[in-house]
Specification:
Largest sheet of chain A: 2 strands, antiparallel
Number of helices of chain B: 2
Largest interface: A-B, 66 and 36 residues
Structural class of chain B: mainly alpha
Oligomer: heterodimer
Distance between the termini of chain A: 26 Å
Structural class of chain A: mainly alpha
Number of strands of chain B: 0
Shape of chain A: globular
Helix content of chain B: 55-70%
Shape of chain B: elongated
Order of helices and strands of chain A: HHHHHHHHHHHHHHEHHEH
Number of strands of chain A: 2
Order of helices and strands of chain B: HH
């Protein structure tokens, strides 16, 4: 339970830390902080009035949808800064930020506490996130461009419930000028947000598991990241206590580097034999690593 | 473990190179400029 408390505290501090510019929120404007040039490792919309960092998925789409325009102008802005930022976070922790500091992940965990009948997410739906990443985040922004070579951030525009909640709804409430211009697209996005909020009460982390493009990208790095989870299969009872505690419903002993694992470490906390361990392998000596290799 | 080591250092190097090249091309400024203006698409106006 100590770990759970520590994780909750980290999640609260991160949600506040990524949205520190309260004066902008009170003024009904969005933050102009210089730190907004830094891509945060979580899904935190930069149009949230208090946000002090840039959402990497919004920034990635904006880099891709202005790629042709920049190339036409002879500018070498290829989006490498965003790609490098994502790679750096991924290679260090994999999906560690999803489990520990993502405000939208925390929101999903909070809503899931509502005591109602719970639903399992069919495994086939977890593959939808690859299609969302490929089509809405990469292909459409890159290919669907106007005569100038400029496109749209399609994931933000059509889907992102984090943007609707943190930016759309908040700005509509505090900025009367924007409120008068809201139309069908806003209604669509709010409907989708409500759908996700209901789903969050019924299933664990539905957005992370079926849609989140950031989690999908960071998930690719789980296999090679410096932070790793290991399972000693010799001591594993296959009691599935880990799966019952897991917010993404996986059996960690089958694949400790699963791309779905958000590395919340609840499995490690709950394991009756203590056969699940985690940590940064980078800091350990080679001989130590040799005797302590992952067994699954 | 050895293979993981190789992949880790390879991807880390690539990420750092990408980051440096992006910074050199002024992409920090581009990201900041976009992030400090209201994203009309995000709020359902685009």
């Amino acid at each position: 339970m100590a770990r759970l408390r520590k994780r909750r505290l980290t999640q609260i501090l991160a949600a506040i830390g990524f949205n520190l510019d309260l004066p902008s929120l009170l003024k009904g404007q969005i933050s102009q902080a210089k730190t907004k040039g830094i891509c945060v490792p979580v899904l935190n919309c930069y149009s949230c009035p208090a946000a002090i960092g840039a959402c990497p998925i919004g920034s990635l789409q904006n880099s891709l949808n202005s790629l042709r325009y920049n190339l036409n102008l002879g500018q070498k802005k290829l989006g490498l800064y965003v790609v490098g930022s994502l790679g750096l976070v991924g290679v260090i922790g994999g999906r560690l930020p999803c489990g520990w500091i993502c405000p939208f992940g925390w929101l999903q965990e909070l809503i899931y506490k509502i005591p109602i009948q719970k639903l399992k997410i069919p495994a086939c739906l977890t593959y939808l996130r690859y299609a969302v990443l490929l089509i809405l985040v990469i292909l459409l922004p890159l290919l669907l461009v106007d005569s100038l070579g400029l496109g749209s951030p399609w994931f933000c525009k059509l889907v992102c419930p984090a943007g609707t909640l943190e930016a759309g709804v908040v700005l509509a409430l505090i900025n009367p000028g924007l409120r008068s211009q809201l139309g069908f697209l806003f209604a669509w996005k709010v409907s989708l947000l409500v759908l996700f909020l209901v789903w969050m009460a019924l299933s664990q982390r539905p957005f992370c598991r079926t849609i989140c493009p950031l989690g999908t990208i960071l998930g690719f790095f789980n296999r090679i990241s410096a932070f790793e989870i290991k399972v000693d299969l010799d001591n594993c009872l296959v009691c599935n206590a880990c799966q019952r505690a897991c917010p993404v419903d996986i059996k960690i002993y089958e694949n400790p580097a699963s791309s779905q694992c958000v590395r919340c470490l609840q499995c490690q906390e709950i394991c009756p034999t203590g056969c699940i361990t985690s940590g940064f392998w980078l800091g350990r000596k080679a001989d130590e690593r040799k005797t302590d290799q992952p067994t699954a | 473990m050895k293979r993981k080591n190789v992949w880790f250092w390879l991807v880390l190097s690539l990420a750092v190179i990408c980051l440096c090249l992006g910074l050199r091309a002024g992409e920090f400024q581009t990201v900041w400029q976009k992030a400090k203006t209201i994203c009309l698409e995000c709020i359902g106006l685009g």
